[in-house]
Structures are given as structure tokens and as C-alpha cells.
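anyone seen this seq b4? input:
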Amino acid sequence: MAYETVIGLEVHVQLATQSKAFCRDSAAFGGAPNTHTGVISLAHPGTLPRLNKTAVQYAVRLGLSLGCRINRRSTFDRKNYFYADLPKGFQTTQDANPICIGGSLQVKRGDALAPIRLHHIHLEEDAGKSLHDQDPHDSLIDLNRAGVPLLEIVTEPDFRSAEEVSQFMESMRRLVRWIGVSDGNMEEGSLRCDVNISIRPEGSETFGTRCEIKNMNSMRFARRAIAYEVERQIKVLESGGRIEQETRGFDPQSGETYSLREKENAHDYRYFPEPDLPPVLLSEDYIAQVAHALPELPEAAQARMQSMYELNVQDAQTLCNERSAAEYFFLLAENAQKAGVSGKLCANFIINQLLPWSAGKHLQLSESPVRVENWTAMLTLIEKGAISASACYQRLLPALLDNPETPPQTLAEQLNLLQDQDSDALSSAVAAVLAKYPEKVAEYKKGKKGLIGFFMGEVMKASKGKANPQEATKMIEAHITPTPNP
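predicted toks r here
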């Protein structure tokens, strides 16, 4: 029997606020264990929470970016369960009235885009961290993370493959970084997800029994966990067994999922309204202000790159992986367009040269010492054929980074990089090369067109690298007229 995979996600986004969700303790990652804690994080008796207004703003920012309906009146609840890294014995979260309702994010399914619907997004606090591998006898508890604000994004069961889950998480990571609500660092736990997986016979409309795999903070591990779990469930059903609803973990070493506990339902958590936090009331003016402050979203930026500057999909996607790269491209392309430099050349320069340079220097593109006007002047030399791209990137680019205020034309002259525009001299160089290698010319005429690269290399040597490659190629082809094979 053929089965269909059905997956839903619970995505946890750790917000990039300076302080925790309900107190002033630092929300920064790292630090010595249990140093980002105070009386509220440690749940001392008599302490009262106070809501972080920036966390609310970030929730609205993300909700608007995903097309959610913003709840004008949201409330907090207590989710009760016992675990050693949960000091209060309950988690402050939103159950009955979450801050964002609905919304969607698209993934590619086949040749089309499929919307992954969101059920809601709610605001809550994180728990601490239990370390089970630091001591041979005891588990250690670090409460630095306890109380850090989270947004939990609950999707509908709209995923049909691990690849779609991976796409969704990559898009979500890009979005939260783009709008500045989270660093999206999966390795540090800033972005992680619980994966709910079930299978059903193909064509069936009835959902199977789902199993939840907790705390996936690596897409590589998530894909492996989903693949294993789907295979496990199929084997259980094919052998006449029944899938039990449960929470499972994933062991990266074995590549297998394993049972943690029976799946709790909502009533097991004994939700009840949080008595120490009033409802969050959001005015229309407040929501409009947050919406107005949002940047152009990545999908719109990508579409603008393709329509205004004729970039292909791959280049536009690469530039839109990070908002800073997209903004720098628009800044450079707008300036360069006035000088007659194509958007494609600007994109190639940023993707292949500037991004690797900035990554190696651990700098943003905007921190480049070279002004956009000088980058434009440099690219103009390539566009007009005054300098070859290879000479520019290998020699002029490093010189310009070392001398950012010097005009690129001046540096190119000092480095003797300007290509010879004397067509007579170039024609003589081409003729001399072809005369030197008559046997190669004969092979080319018989159809061995790959020799054009050899001739080009010889012409460049003869001109000491100053020949214009495009003009040289045209002259070589004009001097040789290949005849078809008999």
C-alpha cells in the first residue's frame, strides 16, 4: 500500500530582546551557567511578572509579515507541568487568546508554490536547559535561558515531505532575521521546531495518529528524523500494529527516533488564565505603526531585483538570503545604472567577490571601506572593456580595498591594467599568433573549436594581458573560417 506523509510543525523563535519576557534579566545567549537569573527567573515567592513590550512588538512584526490577523486582545495562561529546568512549575504562555491568528508561508511543491497555513502564533517564555552529559551521576541545570521570550508558530498539517519542512524553516529563518526579531541561529537554539508526523493511505482524507519529535535544531537532523519516523510508522501498520500517540526524541548517532513519553493533551497541562498579567490590548494605531516600520519583505525584494535589474532567480535568491546584502545590491545597482553598468554585473560582483570578502573579514557589506561611487567606477571599467574582469578582481579590487579613496581609473593606470584599445595592434598580435601555430589553425578549421581558448591565451601573453578578450575573440574568429568535416 502507498502512504502519504502528513506533517505539522511547532516552530519556536527565540526573540532578540535584551531582557527576558517578564523581567529585566539578560536574555543574551551564553554566559556562565545561572548568571542571567534574578528573583523572577528563579520564581522566588511573591515576585510578579511584567511583560516585555518589545516582545509584543516583535510578535506583531512577525504576524504582519506572515499575513496573520493580529488579535486586538490577547491573554496569557499558565501551562502546568513539572520539569527540573522550569523553576515555577508552570510556563507562562498563550492558550485561549494568542496574539496572531492564521497567516501562511509558501513552499515549493513540484513546479508550483504551496501555502503552508498557520493556525496561530503565540508569545511565551522559554524553559531552562538540562545538561545530562556533563556529570556521570547528576543532571545539571542552567537557568540562563529560563524566561527568554519565544514566539511559537503552530502550522496546520500541510507539509507532505521533509524537503518542504526544510524549505519552510529556511524561509522562516530568513524572515525573522530580515525583520530583525531573532538571529535565527539554530545551533544556539534561537530557532528550533517540534515535528508532528503521521501517515495515511494515499487518497485518504482521514488523518493518522501523529507522533511528535521534539526540539529539532538542525535541518539535517530533522530530515533524517522524519525519514526514519515515516519508515517506522509504515512498518508498524504493515505488520498489523497500531501507531500510539506519543512524544519521541531523535538520536543523531543511530539515526533513529525513540519514545520519550505518551503525548499529553491540552487538559493534561491544566491551562488556566494567568492571574498576574493583564490582557494585552493593541490599538489600530499601534498596529499601523508597526506595519509602517516593516521593511520590504524578501519575496518582494527578490521580485523587484528580477523585474528592475533582470537578475535570474538564483542570483536574486542569493542576494535575498540576507537583508543587508539585498539592500547593498539596490544601493550599488541604482548608482551603477546611472553609469550604464548592468544589474547583472553588480550582482556577480557582490555574490562572487564582496560577500566572500565580508565573510572573511566578519564585516557587513555596508562596512566596506570603499564608497559605492568607487565600486561603480571600477565596474564601469569592466562594462566598457577598459579592463578585464579577471584583472579587475585579482589586482584592482585588492588595491582599491587598500586605497579606498583613490579613483579606480588611477589605480588601473598605476598597475598597467588598462586594456589596449588599439585595434591595429591587436590585429597584428592575433595574426602573429596564428602564423606561429599553423598546425593548430588547421585543427581549428577542421572543427576543433576548443582551440579558441589556446589562441586567446597566446594573444593575452603577447599583449601582456592588455588585450580586450571580446575583441580578441572576434578577430581570431574573423581570421579563421573553419570548414566542416568531410
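DSSP finds 15 helices and 17 strands in the chain. Residues 159 and 165 are 7 Å apart (CA to CA). kinda curious what u guys think
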